[in-house]
Specification:
The protein is an alpha/beta fold. It contains six helices and nine strands; from the N terminus they run E-E-E-H-E-H-E-E-E-H-H-E-H-E-H. It has one domain: TIM Barrel (Alpha-Beta Barrel). Strands 3-1-2-4-5-6-7-8-9 form a nine-stranded mixed beta sheet. Strand 4, helix 2 and strand 5 form a beta-alpha-beta unit.
């Protein structure tokens, strides 16, 4: 069994997505091939420690919490061991989600896992990395997220929402880039245009700012 390179495993409240506010164990894998301008987890780009799948599973069990989120960095940069870990977690009865960029192939993700797919906007600096073929693999239980940095980003995301009929595929989330776009401004745009999306802010940043492990 391949080992996983892990930055941290911690217990907190889910800060985003439809399970926001629920106690959740986060497994943060190390490494990411992207360099988004707004990245808030650059400390996960390197370092970390190697663990076997069983060692990670035991750390998760110790928290005695039903929800588990696999995140990064970019967790699918460690494709095979990450996919195997998620399947093992599902087999043990956990409600598993993964936070992944639109730049990684999601075809091999266990269908029991809820995918939160972060499509990269122009101001992220990584828009060209989006793999649009990923959309065909999304389920109704998955979510598409846009981190909006500016009016330009908003208009681009609005265009993609309509052009690709994203709201018919799954829930769509619009989130303001922290300290870059006013949450009120984004909320006003969404209401004015009556978009079929869910506005969200990052709860964990409101509660704990950018403190690792929270």
């Amino acid at each position: 069994m391949s080992r996983l390179r892990i930055t941290e495993v911690f217990h907190s409240l889910q800060g985003e997505s439809r399970t926001i506010g629920l106690p959740t164990v986060f497994v943060r894998l190390t490494g990411c091939p992207l360099r988004c301008h707004y990245c808030d987890t650059a400390y996960a780009f390197s370092g970390g420690e190697y663990f076997s799948q069983e060692q990670v599973l035991q750390q998760v069990r110790d928290f005695n919490t039903h929800h588990v989120t696999i995140t990064g960095g970019e967790p699918l940069a460690q494709k095979a061991p990450c996919e195997a870990l998620m399947t093992a977690l599902c087999d043990e009865g956990y409600a598993v989600s993964i936070e992944t960029s639109g730049a990684m192939d999601i075809a091999g993700v266990d269908p029991r896992v809820s995918i939160v797919l972060d499509l990269k906007t122009p101001d992220s600096g990584e828009m060209a990395r989006n793999l649009w073929d990923n959309l065909q693999y999304l389920k109704k239980t998955d979510e598409i997220k846009f981190v909006i940095c500016s009016r330009q980003d908003y208009l681009w995301a609005k265009l993609k929402l309509d052009e690709l009929e994203l709201a018919k595929r799954c829930d769509v989330l619009f989130s303001p880039s922290f300290e870059q776009l006013s949450p009120t401004q984004l909320a006003d745009w969404i209401v004015a245009d009556n978009l079929p999306v869910r506005f969200q802010v990052q709860l964990h940043k409101i509660l704990w700012n950018d403190e690792p492990g929270r």
